[in-house]
Amino acid sequence: MICETVKKGTDCFLMKSSGCSFPGGSCKPIIDKCEGCAKVTEVEDKKYCLSYPDPESRWLAGTCNLATHIKRDVEQIKKKINPLKASKKGIRS
Q: Is 65 inside a domain boundary?
């Protein structure tokens, strides 16, 4: 539905017929770490994330997984392998 609170005129997945379904009733502006992301839109001189209504909470645990402007290392993407399970797999082959 079309947002009627802070991002007036944009399509918002949180907007329901009864109003904004996000706790607090409206989306929050982006933080400095979000600058440069492709998912940022500017509405009435304020910038908002199109994918998440509270961008600050996405950055609490490290980097935002939705950020398009951050290059991730291959080492960050690889899963940590449990040595015990790896040795058991080696025995089976």
A: yes
3-class state of residue 48 by DSSP: strand
Count: domains in the chain: 1
Q: What is the pLDDT of residues 33-76, one digit of tens each?
A: 888 888 888 888 889 888 888 888 888 888 888 888 888 766 55
Query: What is the 3-state composition of the chain as percent helix, strand, coil, each rounded to the nearest 5?
Result: 25, 15, 60
Q: Is residue 3 included in any domain, yes or no? A: no
Q: Percentage of the chain with pLDDT > 90?
A: 0
Distance CA 89, CA 93 (A): 7
Instruction: Look up the domain containing 35 and give its range.
Output: 15-92
- pLDDT of 51 reads 85
At 33, is the secondary structure helix, strand, or coil?
Answer: helix
Question: Is 0.70 surpassed by the pTM of this model?
Answer: no
Question: Is 19 within the bounds of a domain?
Answer: yes
Number of H helices, E strands in the chain: 3, 4
